[in-house]
Amino acid sequence: MAAPSHRALFGVLRGWSRGARGGCRGLSSSGAAGSKWRLLGALCLQRPPRVTQAMSPLEKEMAALVGEMDLEKSLYSDHEIRCLAEEERMKRKKDKFDDDDDGGKEIVLAQDLEDAWEQKLQKFTPAPRITDADKDGDRTSLNRKLDQNLLLLVKQKVGNREIWLLPQAEWQDGETLRATAERALVELSGQHWEAKFLGNAPCGFYKYKFPRVARTDTGAGAKVFFFKALLQPSQPPLPKEKLDHVWVSKEELVDYLKPEYHSQVARFLVDL
After folding, report:
1. Is the per-residue pLDDT at 189 higher than 90?
2. What is the tens place of the pLDDT at every residue in 86-118?
3. Could you give the CA distance from residue 219 to residue 159 in angstroms, rounded to a whole number?
4. For residue range 5-22, what is the model confidence (pLDDT) as tens digits?
5. pLDDT average, residue stretch 140-147
6. pLDDT by residue (tens digit) across 238-252?
7. Residue 205 pLDDT > 70, yes or no?
8. pTM, two decimal places
9. In 3D, which of 256, 196, 264 has the Cα closest to residue 225?
10. How far apart (Å, rounded) are the C-alpha atoms in residues 100 and 97?
11. What is the CA radius of gyration of the chain?
């Protein structure tokens, strides 16, 4: 009698488990259908550094030490071997041990090459690390803070206010969230800017509720999914007269973004 009772109990439990799982699925889909959140895809567009950062005193000291160690362990280059051979040849000529006649040909010595290279070096002027945009404080220019990452911010209208945000667009049925962020890039520039998106998954998330006067039955708030992309070189600048925008470093974000929004954005920004 024990075996049938155990089988009956197992059957009851299995039926209850299936019913519970079915009920959970029904509640989940019902909640999704009645969601009052608007989905937005935001673009975290960064301009990578164009020059390396200046070395700290410790880095300079370490670089000098490593350079000395490499020099001690290195072999002679072809140019250095040529210099040594020419020195030996000149010494033999001076001591009249070498009667080799050059036949009146013009000989270019290694020292002559070094003198010519030195003259070219004296004429070379490196580009300044501090640009005119840095001096003028023009934050709409891409040609500033060349040794840091820059992030694009735009002024967008939310409700009846204009605030600084990362470029964003509302999700449309049938597209992925990354496609929404890519569409935000096209709408932003009015042309096909070249940017490399770093993956299909969002790098950050932010949720906020609309003001009470702006809430509706289909929109009580917004969920923003951020996608990181790197601006490729030689891209045309954004028109200042058509779009209020800035290119700012991570430290300058606090001058534009709201505290809650800034705390979420700062989480996925890394300066290397």
Report:
1. no
2. 888 888 877 765 555 555 566 788 888 999 999
3. 12
4. 444 434 534 544 444 444
5. 91
6. 776 667 899 999 999
7. yes
8. 0.71
9. 264
10. 9
11. 33
CA distance 48 to 233: 9
199's CB contacts (< 8 A; 6+ apart) are 227, 228
Residue owning tokens 């030490």: 65
Q: For residues 250 and 195, what is the distance between their CA atoms, to the nearest angstrom?
A: 19
Cα–Cα distance for residue pair 261/244, rounded to 1 Å: 19
3-class SS letters over the chain: CHHHHHHHHHHHHHHHHHHHHHHHHHHHHHHHHCCCEEEEEEEEEEECCCCCCCCCHHHHHHHHHHHHHHHHHCCCCHHHHHHHHHHHHHHHHHCCCCCCCCCCCCCCCHHHHHHHHHHHHHHCCCCCCCCHHHHHCCCCCCCCCCCCCEEEEEEEEECCEEEEECCEEECCCCCCHHHHHHHHHHHHHCCCCCEEECCCCCCEEEEEECCHHHCCCCCCEEEEEEEEEEECCCCCCCCCCCCCEEEECHHHHHHCCCHHHHHHHHHCCCCC
Instruction: Identify whether the C-beta of residue 164 lies closer than 8 Å to the C-beta of residue 27.
Output: no
Give strand pairing partners of 230.
Answer: 46, 196
Look at 216 and 123; give whichever has higher pLDDT: 123
Neighbours of 131 (CB within 10 A): 16
pLDDT at 108: 82
- C-alpha dist (Å) from residue 197 to 94, 169, 179, 190, 226: 68, 16, 11, 18, 11
Q: Does residue 62 or residue 31 have the better pLDDT?
A: 62
Q: Find the mean pLDDT for residues 38-56.
A: 91
Distance CA 17, CA 10 (A): 10
